[in-house]
Amino acid sequence: MQTLKSWFSIIFIIGLIPTLYAETNAKVDPEVIDRIEEMGKYLRSLKKFEVESNFTFEIATEDNQKFSYPGKLHYKVKRPNKLFAELKSDHKQRQYYYDGTSMTIYDPKSKFYGQIAAPETIDELMEEIEENYKIILPLEDLFDWGTDKAPTDKISMATYIGESKINNIEVEQFVIRQGNIDWQLWVKKGDEPIPQKIIYTAIDDQVRPQFSAELKWTLDPKIKTNDFEFKPPKGSYKIEINPPEGDAVAKQKVSP
Amino acid sequence: MKALLITLSIFSLLPNAFAYRGGGIRARGGAPLNVNRNINVTRNVNVVGGGWHGYYPAPYHPVATAAVVTGAAVVTAAAIGSIVHSIPPNCINTVVNGVTYSQCGSTWYQPQYVGSSVQYVVVNPPK
């Protein structure tokens, strides 16, 4: 009886080996996860920052052609409740102003702006505008790292690539996979682990479109309160902001 | 002539002209969006960036559910309630009873943000 029990134990253990092996998957380098967590923690610790970015964004067509367009992003941020973001691309120009009480979105081309009452923090704002209006700010990831919106346990692959330099800044390059996105991150070495370059690739798409952005950081920016206050430019008009879901039909007074 | 002008003004917003005309920009997952109306779709690229939120353009696409009118159709039949993503350049913005309108000849639009995109809803002239 005792022998039989031992045999069962052995069989049980042998059966377990592949599972254990799979769980301590060599595809996730724990050191890379550590670096990414450090980066997230550091990004979250910044009380204010300014970041400027040149990016290239690829779009796939039905015929599996890819095309790309360039653009620029600019963020000025003062935690917990001040944010300015500007997107300039061939297709779209937008400015976002958040002053702690309201958020304004402004299109300099059409000169239309929309305003909504805003919650008390940048984090809440981002959640709210995504939830209610499906608005996601460009490179919003910079605010997600280090929070439960960017859970590192959802990373299925993580590889250390090596060291390099971006704009003369020493960086380390990582590749991670999360869901259907492959990320390449170039993170500054030393005690300011900020991403200097990000590329993400949609791996669920046959032509694998990429978004690529280099980031220039100012960690002690000159910030004025009115950087975050929207003053309607001459010739601008206020319009409503509506969510994209359902039939977006303008409310119009119908004469009796 | 008027129709031609409007068509040109819409097309000139595109980068490499018609390289992807007829193709249609697809949403994530590959479903074609408004194959004949891809100009609107292209202009409507919603978000740049956001890896944790998925790759864009996608998954929130206003055009997919909205009634979209092509440039040519705007001239001939501006059905009340239909939505366009651009209007001719000669329109005038006015505020009536606190509401902003764009008036293009006899056609009136009410511009609105849908998400972060500006759309124009064809409306009856305000009174």
Automatic annotation (TrEMBL), chain A:
Residues 234-256 are annotated as: Disordered. This is DUF2092 domain-containing protein. It holds the Pfam family DUF2092. Keywords: Signal. It comes from Peredibacter starrii.
UniProtKB/TrEMBL annotation, chain B:
Keywords: Signal. Residues 1-19 form the signal peptide. It comes from the Bacteria. This is Uncharacterized protein. The lineage of its organism: Bacteria, Pseudomonadati, Bdellovibrionota, Bacteriovoracia, Bacteriovoracales.
